[in-house]
Amino acid sequence: MQRYSIFTLARNAANYHKGWGRAWRSAEPRAQYDVIIIGAGGHGLATAYYLAKEHNITSVAVVEKGWLGGGNTGRNTTIIRSNYLQDESAAIYQLAHRLYEGLSQELNFNIMFSPRGLMMLCQTEHELRSMTRNAHANRLFGIESRMISPKQVKKKVPIINMSAGVRYPVLGALYQPRGGTARHDAVAWGYARGADMRGVDIIQNCEVTGISVARGRVNAVETTKGRIRASKVAIVTAGNTTRLTDMAGLRMPIESVALQALVSEPIKPVLDVVIMANTVHGYISQSDKGELVIGGGTDDYNNYSQRGSFPALQHTVTALVETFPIISRLKMLRQWAGIVDMTGDRSPIISKTDVAGLFVNCGWGTGGFKSIPGSGFVFADTIANDRPHPIAEPFSIDRFLEGRFVDESVAAGVAH
Predict the structure, then answer these.
(1) What is the C-alpha to C-alpha distance for residues 26 and 204, in angstroms, rounded to an integer?
(2) What is the tens place of the pLDDT at every residue in 192-235?
(3) pTM for this one?
(4) Contact 372, 43 (CB under 8 A)
């Protein structure tokens, strides 16, 4: 594996990075692969990486209609946590969290993982009871997550408004000490480089226009760069899943909505933990550059817009201003939206389908970034062995026919 000393970095900088090797190849599609992964976001790239690393399947193409990491992977707010309610959810998010903690070392690529701590504020009595239930469930599962008092919240977050008579009082918080953030594009780049080094072809600007199925089995995908044959195809295209599954004659139990966020102008450090406030549908953290990263809940209507809208942001910021008065004086630097797939039980689908050789990984809602390593690990195992990984098994698409819902509508209410 190639490594660079500080002297190598300085020399290349002085030479305007002439001769600096690409992190991954700009591949052109071959006629046939063992596996085609549609979608070069975090989940798709992680799946390709683990297929090659864990299962020695290197005849893999990752096809992307745009650029690598240009979808939701580059349009999220980087929050990482595992303190979900149901055991099935806790298992996959805890796996992801554990992999995140060693990911920089594994990929030899700094993903800037920051386990700074995460609080989920309780601002109603109902929420206090719900989060206390979460804390007990987390403790039984072995996740380090506990309830803390308003006084402890104030000590950790001096800028929070704890005045008497506020509309949304802070009654406590569910605190995960090792929750935090990572650099979203670095996660994609690290997995891309790792997969490429193991022989995976990453093909950008290659839109899938059709999925070929014969006698109940997938055999190829049609793309803007021609037909590519494969015996296995995996759809990992958050926000566009139904468009792809329709090509194969499958109807998925998901809907797509926009999720919006913004960042402020940079300021001096004022917040060293991640704060989620489900009651007001808002959350806030501070980036390494000093920007306050602010976001809220999903739009109230189905749409595929990535532009964002001022009414949704106004709703989020209006509620947060009371809890964090400091943000009322800040200027907005930029805003964006990602398209998220939502299931009825607010849990993902990691599954084989009725079409032999066709697999789907979707429905992560607004919690996709935090799950990338765990999702890729179990999805790769499912594809390689043509059967669900034990952690992925509860998230089969069949659960909607059998009534085996994994209900995370409370823990994933804001779902970041």
Answers:
(1) 8
(2) 999 999 999 999 999 999 999 999 999 999 999 999 999 999 99
(3) 0.92
(4) yes
